[in-house]
Write a sequence for this structure.
């Protein structure tokens, strides 16, 4: 839930052109990197299986767009929620996928052809990050009141929290808050090591004392007390463990 006076994620999404609104949902709902979003082929969206297969991303190499593997060559499968599948189906109906042929890894290497979910505004080719960020993403943040409009002749504010990577952090924070296993989260994000995931998102974990209170409260909640003593609880534990 957004705080009073602060634009919601939905309001920021609405400010984007309709052909890119699914980008926000996909980034925040599946935790993909920006290059993975713009390099996602339709045939790697498992509408029937409930999984996304992440095998490549779009990068700029030598001034040219190329397909490359995900960071550290870590292909992965990411859970596809039902609502996200519905959003993507609607997106495909309104904005048909496009076929793109680009080199693999380097500008002059063997090309690969993929049918991508997202295209340039004119429909001619895939999305280039350096075009999308200032013209679409930052403009949407200005319209939603997240960042100020730049003065004439100046560029938009540059801050990590204003980039599309914030959607990936939103995804992680939601799962951490829901008690998701760190190892599973690390796999979904494509990290090499769960310890790295823990270091990055440890500030989102509930405090030890707060978690202790809520855990014990949940144990006793709903039990009746007689003569100031619980009818169940520690005695059950003692019986289970023996004298």
């Amino acid at each position: 839930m957004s705080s009073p006076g602060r634009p919601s994620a939905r309001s920021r999404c609405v400010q984007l052109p309709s052909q890119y609104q699914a980008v926000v949902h996909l980034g925040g709902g599946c935790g993909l990197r920006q290059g993975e979003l713009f390099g996602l082929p339709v045939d790697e969206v498992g509408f029937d299986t409930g999984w996304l297969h992440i095998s490549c991303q779009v990068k700029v190499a030598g001034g040219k767009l190329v397909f490359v593997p995900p960071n550290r060559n870590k292909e992965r499968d990411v859970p596809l929620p039902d609502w996200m599948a519905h959003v993507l189906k609607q997106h495909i109906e309104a904005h048909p996928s496009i076929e793109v042929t680009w080199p693999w890894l380097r500008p002059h290497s063997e090309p690969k052809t993929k049918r991508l979910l997202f295209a340039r505004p004119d429909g001619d080719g895939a999305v280039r990050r350096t075009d999308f960020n200032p013209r679409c993403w930052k403009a949407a943040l200005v319209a939603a009141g997240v960042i100020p409009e730049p003065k004439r002749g100046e560029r938009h504010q540059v801050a990590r929290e204003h980039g599309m990577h914030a959607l990936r952090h939103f995804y992680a924070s939601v799962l951490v808050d829901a008690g998701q296993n760190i190892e599973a989260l690390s796999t979904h994000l494509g990290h090499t090591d769960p310890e790295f995931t823990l270091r990055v998102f440890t500030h989102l974990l509930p405090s030890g004392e707060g978690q202790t209170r809520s855990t014990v409260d949940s144990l006793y909640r709903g039990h009746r007390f007689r003569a100031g003593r619980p009818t169940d609880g520690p005695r059950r534990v003692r019986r289970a463990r023996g004298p």
About this structure: The CA atoms of residues 96 and 221 lie 52 Å apart. The chain has a mean pLDDT of 82.
